[in-house]
Write a structure and sequence with these properties.
It contains 8 helices and 6 strands. It is α+β, with helices and mostly antiparallel strands and about 180 residues long.
C-alpha cells in the first residue's frame, strides 16, 4: 500500500500534539487534534504572514559572552560547532531578573537547548543534569540514548572563571520548575 493510497482510504487522522506533556499542559493542548480528510487536504502547502516582532538587541552580545566563557562548546555534550551552539538563558529573558549576563546563561547545542527549554532535562544547583523519568524509560534510537539519557546525573562543563559560573539560585529556581512539570 503506498502512502497516497493510505491517505485516500483514511477518513480521519490523529495529528500528534506538539511539545512535551508539560508544554501541552501549559498551552492547554491536552489531546491531539483530529482532522478529517477534507480538512487535511485543504491545508495550504505554503502560507506566509508578516509580523511585527520585538527584537532582543542584546542577544548577540549575550551569545558571544556565554560561548566565550564556555570555551565555544556545549556545556552538556562538549560539541564545538559554533553554528550549532546557543546561549541558553537560565531565567528567561522575559523575567525581570533574566539579564543577559554570563551567570544567567549556559552554552548549549541546539538539541540540549531545546530539551532544556521544553523541560525534557534540567540542571540542578550542583550543575548535574537530570532527565524526566519518562524520557529515561523511553526506547528510541542512538540520539536519545547517547545524546540525552547518558547525561542523566552527569555534571555540566562549567566556565573556568568563578564569576562566570551559572548562578546557583537561578538554577535552583529553574530546577524546581523542571521537577514540578
Amino acid at each position: 500500500m503506498t502512502g497516497r493510497s493510505r491517505i485516500s482510504s483514511a477518513t480521519t487522522w490523529t495529528v500528534p500534539a506538539c511539545g512535551s506533556p508539560a508544554t501541552r499542559r501549559r498551552t492547554g493542548q491536552a489531546q491531539p487534534d483530529r482532522l478529517t480528510e477534507d480538512q487535511y487536504l485543504n491545508i495550504p502547502l505554503k502560507a506566509y504572514a508578516t509580523r511585527v516582532v520585538k527584537q532582543r538587541l542584546h542577544q548577540e552580545r549575550f551569545r558571544y559572552l556565554v560561548l566565550s566563557a564556555y570555551r565555544g562548546q556545549c556545556a552538556m555534550c562538549r560539541l564545538r560547532h559554533t553554528p550549532l551552539l546557543d546561549a541558553a538563558h537560565i531565567l528567561p529573558d522575559r523575567d525581570e531578573r533574566g539579564n543577559p549576563e554570563i551567570p544567567n546563561g549556559m552554552a548549549l547545542c541546539r538539541i540540549h537547548h531545546g530539551a532544556y527549554d521544553v523541560g525534557i532535562l534540567g540542571v540542578d544547583p550542583d550543575y548535574k543534569v537530570h532527565l524526566r523519568a519518562d524520557v529515561l524509560e523511553e526506547h528510541d534510537g542512538p540520539m536519545l540514548r547517547h545524546g540525552l539519557q547518558e547525561l542523566h546525573g552527569v555534571g555540566i562543563q562549567t566556565p573556568r572563571r568563578a564569576e562566570h559560573l551559572p548562578n546557583r539560585g537561578y538554577l535552583a529556581e529553574r530546577f524546581k520548575q523542571f521537577l514540578a512539570a
